[in-house]
Amino acid sequence: MSSKKYASLINGNIVDGDQFFDVINPSSNQVLATVTEVDSHGIEAALSSAKEGFKVWSKEKPSVRKEKILKYVEILEREKEGLISLLISETGKPRDNAEYDFGMLITCLKFFVEEYERMDQPVIQDPSGRFLNYIQRQPLGVVVGLLAWNFPLLNVGYKLGPVLAAGCSAIIKPSEFTPLASLEVGYLAKEAGIPDGVVNMIACKDKEVFKPALESEIPAMVTMIGSTRGGLSVMQSSCSSIKQFSVELGGNAPVLVYPDADLAKAAEKIVGLKFANTGQVCVSPNRCYVHDSILEEFTEKVLEITSSVEMGPMISSQERDNVLAMIDLAVKEGATIAAGGSAKEGPGFFMQPTVLTGMTHGQTMCRKEIFGPVLPIYSFSDDEDEIALANDVSEGLAAYVFTSNLSKALKAAQEIEAGSVCINEPHYSVELPHGGLKQSGVGKDCSRYSLEEYLTVKRVSVLIES
User: Which of 118, 220, 288, 346 is spaced 20 to 30 Å from 67 by Cα?
Assistant: First the structure.
């Protein structure tokens, strides 16, 4: 077990307490560290701290904010190896995945500080010629963020990047499953010269204890990465006052594979994304619809690639049990396990990469986000509307289409109800907006569209001719 003490960061101080929770290494099922859980007084202190921190940081010159953020990047890169090692221990990620996770934190901090300098404050033409009208963008305020456990530092970057660049302050609660590397990142903010209260990192397992942070009138925005059910609960608690929301919630991503697709490439890309991070990815392929004329050939290619897949563990025994139960139900409803389907023996929460065939659109699995290493393969025929099948769920986060026909590709891009549609290859980048439609959330992470959410749009009109 780690000998380092972990606790919440509030107003630049590590705050002790009487309650604790354990963080488990999912590769070994052993206790990795014990974390002090924040109490109600800590939540009150975090709100007050963030309010005062915002007053200081929002008035700082953008050039000074930039200097301190880039200093923060230097410090984080200096601590890279320790942060990656900790990330591997608390998530079970393979090293290359953990390096990507850490790397996205750095990328986000750099990107948003540069993107801030590109934000426009346009002049609006006045028909009478009597006024000079212009838009003034100012920091929004205190931001409360609740983050998921699948990519802990990437998720911190998605939120802390625009918070710091825009001049806001934050109260960030990483998942209780994976708080350690995120807390370390918070601890390092002071060394970069970022004022106390601007970055508050909260360790909390009890949702009721954290609830006052959502109900308070101090936050101007509540942001979240998590499930749709969790997002609804958070938004309901937050509606005690007017706040902005930016929430990236559950996904149920469809894949459409047409007969004219490059099947080898399609199988490679779909399998690669499906089993990345042990299937614990919000944009993971969840429903793979394949034209019946190529179903057998495509499935063979998928099974061949899957046979050599190596994965880390799932985050917990409960999450693994949930996925295994979904597999069992799918089989009862008519599916066939073509590969995997079981937990792996030994310590940790490992399971086999799984491929299900014989799936039909009416089965229970079609309606749920799997969030685990299971690829269900469905078929569609010329008599079916495959885009209607893709849209026939309540979520709309991401979608994938494989075809060499430009008309089919553009039609799918136009008609699929999702926040992003990738044609012939999954593609995600900090420059591109990431977020969902329907029950997959509101608002965006990444890109200038995210940064805009952390800034007000104030119209100023100056009389120039009376």
Answer: 220
